[in-house]
């Protein structure tokens, strides 16, 4: 029997934990023998001391096998999964899932809810009336076989170690750690059972990893874990220094995803979606990366993903009319324009700050048990690089309670820096990481 105290002491001094110690620690924590206060101390020690590749891989495997795992063999074809490390305005799953499914890829996806300043796919989907993300296994498989795609929450007893660790990390300031993010994401992806995994590793002010080098390190670690576990895996490092698209907030993001599926979406979101979709198609052996990009673009131009999304929504109990006509989403009863305080250019955005402002309007949770207001959020009229005149509308805030506006507006305005000179150009995609190495763009 391990003594958790000794393991904390060991990690505090930067020593490597053995595989056996990690196994016992995960088991003890899931069973409740190891209390939250000791695991919190361990998480902070890991945050400061890091973990070796061997330790991170072992932690991932123990977490992946801490509960049930999915056997997707009853779904025909190559199953491809995708996971983002989390961002603001990141509705890519709602676009590339249906888009790649329309091209014959099977998407059996388990998604998450919002965390901190970031949004979550499940919350966005649940803004569609009637839709459920809580679906039992056989029905999940049946929907994927029939429509090509289903997106559900972590079912029953899957990866309980991550559920507990995630909740603890969220309140102990230990989210932004490479081994902890890598093991959290990859344990879920391995347990979810897809053959191939595309990782969208965000970088910048709205991401958990703020610098490109940290993001590349995280991507390398995750790709190595996935490859070591026998999955085909690659990662794109994509920009999160600026919110993705213009909509932040659940129902507004679904509407923007539909627009993008019809090739009428914002340029940054469209390009990130096409690149991610191309990588998913490529891992599903549909062609070279260039061919797959052309296929994804053609599918977007013909809008064929819209029918797939509508079919998935219907199969999951939702009202598919909202996909064909997103104007059906009831708008929030109140809105407030945020005006530019001076002339200039938007030269910097604290994207996490924008995410927090939207949470303050009711689009996210401040506490785990908080209810979400699906119509709340922010629509951005000016983004990074745009010239502005004093009094121009930077953004429109949406909420169900006018009292929420003052605080959220202050937070939002603090997040936008308006400078005198035009801003430097920014890329949407910085690098691609595969088992073979890192390709920087
Ligand atoms: N997303 C996850 O699933 N886990 C993390 O730790 C961070 C983002």
For the structure shown, list the relevant keywords:
441 residues; alpha+beta; Transferase, Pyrimidine Nucleoside Phosphorylase, Chain A, domain 3; Aldehyde Oxidoreductase, domain 3; 3 domains; 4-stranded antiparallel β-sheet; binds uracil
Outline the structure in words.
Helices cover 45% and strands 16% of the residues. By secondary structure, it is α+β, with helices and mostly antiparallel strands. It folds into 3 domains: 4-50, Transferase, Pyrimidine Nucleoside Phosphorylase, Chain C (Transferase, Pyrimidine Nucleoside Phosphorylase, Chain A, domain 3, Up-down Bundle); 80-325 and 429-440, Nucleoside phosphorylase/phosphoribosyltransferase catalytic domain (Pyrimidine Nucleoside Phosphorylase, Chain A, domain 2, 3-Layer(aba) Sandwich), CATH 3.40.1030; 336-419, Pyrimidine nucleoside phosphorylase-like, C-terminal domain (Aldehyde Oxidoreductase, domain 3, Alpha-Beta Complex), CATH 3.90.1170. Strand 4, helix 10 and strand 5 (232-239) form a beta-alpha-beta unit. The protein is globular. The protein starts with a helix and ends with a strand. The chain binds uracil.
What count of domains describes the coordinates? Answer: 3
Q: Give the strand content.
A: 15-25%
Q: What coarse outline follows from CA principal-axis ratios?
A: globular
Widest sheet: strand order? 1-4-5-13-14
The number of helices is 17
Q: Could you say what the CATH topology of the largest domain is called? A: Pyrimidine Nucleoside Phosphorylase, Chain A, domain 2
């Amino acid at each position: 029997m391990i003594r958790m105290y000794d393991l904390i002491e060991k990690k505090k001094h930067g020593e490597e934990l053995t595989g056996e110690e990690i196994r016992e620690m995960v088991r003890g924590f899931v069973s409740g023998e190891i209390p939250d206060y000791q695991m919190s101390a361990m998480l902070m020690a890991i945050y400061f001391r890091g973990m070796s590749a061997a330790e991170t891989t072992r932690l991932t495997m123990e977490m992946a096998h801490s509960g049930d795992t999915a056997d997707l063999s009853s779904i025909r074809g190559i199953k491809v999964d995708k996971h983002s490390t989390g961002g603001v305005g990141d509705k890519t799953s709602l676009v590339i899932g249906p888009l790649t499914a329309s091209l014959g890829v099977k998407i059996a996806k388990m998604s998450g809810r919002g965390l901190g300043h970031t949004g979550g796919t499940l919350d966005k989907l649940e803004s569609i009336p009637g839709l459920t993300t809580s679906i039992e296994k056989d029905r999940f498989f049946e929907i994927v076989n029939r429509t090509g795609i289903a997106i559900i929450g972590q079912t029953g007893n899957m990866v309980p170690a991550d559920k507990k660790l995630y909740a603890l990390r969220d309140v102990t300031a230990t989210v932004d750690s490479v081994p902890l993010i890598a093991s959290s994401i990859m344990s879920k992806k391995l347990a979810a059972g897809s053959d191939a995994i595309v990782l969208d590793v965000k970088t910048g002010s709205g991401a958990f990893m703020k610098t490109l080098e940290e993001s590349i390190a995280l991507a390398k670690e995750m790709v190595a874990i996935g490859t070591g576990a026998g999955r085909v895996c690659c990662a794109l490092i994509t920009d999160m220094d600026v919110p993705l698209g213009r909509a932040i907030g659940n129902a507004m993001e679904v509407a923007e995803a539909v627009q993008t599926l019809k090739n009428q979406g914002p340029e940054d979101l469209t390009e990130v979606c096409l690149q991610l979709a191309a990588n998913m198609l490529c891992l599903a052996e549909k062609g070279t990366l260039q061919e797959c990009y052309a296929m994804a673009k053609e599918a977007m131009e013909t809008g064929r993903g819209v029918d797939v999304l509508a079919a998935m929504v219907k199969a999951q109990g939702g009202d598919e009319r909202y996909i064909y006509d997103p104007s059906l989403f009831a708008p929030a009863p109140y809105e407030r324009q945020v005006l530019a305080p001076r002339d200039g250019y938007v030269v910097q955005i604290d994207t996490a700050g924008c995410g927090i402002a939207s949470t303050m309007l009711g689009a996210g949770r401040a506490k785990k048990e908080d209810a979400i207001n699906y119509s709340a959020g922010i629509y951005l009229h000016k983004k990074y690089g745009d010239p502005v005149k004093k009094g121009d509308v930077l953004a429109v805030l949406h909420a169900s309670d006018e009292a929420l506006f003052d605080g959220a507006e202050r937070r939002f305005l603090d997040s936008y820096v308006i400078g005198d000179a035009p801003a430097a150009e920014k890329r949407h995609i910085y690098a691609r990481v595969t088992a073979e190495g890192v390709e920087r763009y």
